[in-house]
Amino acid sequence: MHRLLADDLAQLPDLLDLARDRAAAVLAGLDSRPVVAAGVRGGARVPDAVPLPADGVGAAAALAEFTELWEPHMSASAGPRYFGFVTGGTTPAALAGDWLTAALDQNANSSFEYGGQGLERQTVAWLRELFGLGPAHSGTFVSGATMSNFVGLAIAREWLGTRLGVSVAANGAAALGRVRVLSGTAHSSIAKALSMLGLGRSALVPVPVLHNREAVDVAALERELEAAEGPCVVVANAGTVNTVDFDDLRAIAALRARHDFWLHVDAAFGGFAALSPRHAHHVAGLDEADSICIDLHKWLNVPYDSAIQFTRRRDLQTSVFQNSAAYLGPLGEEPDLVHLTPENSHRLRALAAWFTLRAYGREGHREIVEHCAESALAFHAAVEATPGLVPLAPLRLNVVCFTLADDPTADRIQALIRAVSEEAFFTPTVYQGVPAIRAAFSNWRTTADDVERSVRALRAALG
């Protein structure tokens, strides 16, 4: 054994204590550190690339070097004023589960080792119940919403093949001919998934949305279905990125009585509305979907990377993703996880989710969702009351979309975001042709004080 490895193994408990203390210090300092660090701050520049050294320094020295050179440039994305994208923090229980995930170092894909698969299946069942889905839906953990959408659309692609009498898994996407994927306000990951699946970005057909909404016009969708030459795929949204708008899932599902299509629902973070009696009406009909995307490192507040995909057609899923090798378990009635996603191996992502669900239960996570929605409501009201700012859309759940009252150019939007980035982090967007800002509330740590502090930063930047 290499000398440094042997030394670190002998000192492992002390090294883990050092890492714990460093992690605790980072988390304790979230309130005071810059939310997004600049490339240069106080004379400290992002380190230049250096060649890999021939000789190592050991884990303790590596930790010290990281703390000095790189940690100052890390964002406070785990903190309460990181409103960019839709990024949850990490609950204490999820953090503990994630540390144990690394320590146990399980590949959860094989039934030769039951523990990982068993725990994942229990966690999937809990999540299915949490989101109000019936037993017909089966689920598997994946890395994020992009991969969840990819898996759902891959199953849809195989379903299209069954309608045309071909197997895409066996013969390739060319066997389908032209494919139409209909959606009102599709997330960018949908086009990316279609590209990866060989269906092509041009397969995505935009459908008109309701006036001043991002929700699809169901009548317009039916006209597109009537014009379709054969079966197609509909991607419905349960929570759009800019305004958290929701398609009418029940009305869309009802169209299947007259038209032949696969219904995939992108509920990456909007699906969490199901946890709250106040907001669950937004996702009425979610259980009727053929496949569903839900991103857990968003509003479940577990660490990156973690998402789940659900489907009613596990048989088609295994047709796409089965991996036949002598060293792998057979498909069987309860297929190994290796046969359900693109990954031949994945870390035990379910453990962090299991921990936070077991620790805080349905009520704890309902409170997180409702508290974030209340924080967004307070921020929305503050934007309305701030001269120079104006909301662009009604607040439906947890994302506030707003812009400058005068001359909202992309450059001015970016300048405002940069000006407040040490106090609060927002992301730019464009809504109905207007450059704008998104503030997404999904972190369990966010308080009323954080909302007020962020608003003060915006007002100060506006002068």
TrEMBL record:
Family matches, as Gene3D superfamilies: 3.90.1150.170, Aspartate Aminotransferase, domain 1, Type I PLP-dependent aspartate aminotransferase-like (Major domain)
Annotated TM spans: none
InterPro entries according to UniProt: Aromatic_deC, PyrdxlP-dep_de-COase, PyrdxlP-dep_Trfase, PyrdxlP-dep_Trfase_major, PyrdxlP-dep_Trfase_small
Cofactor(s) this protein cannot do without: pyridoxal 5'-phosphate
Keywords, in A-Z order: Decarboxylase, Lyase, Pyridoxal phosphate
Superkingdom of source: Bacteria
Pfam families: Pyridoxal_deC (PF00282)
Family per similarity comment: Belongs to the group II decarboxylase family.
Protein name: Pyridoxal-dependent decarboxylase
Lineage start: Bacteria, Bacillati, Actinomycetota, Actinomycetes, Catenulisporales
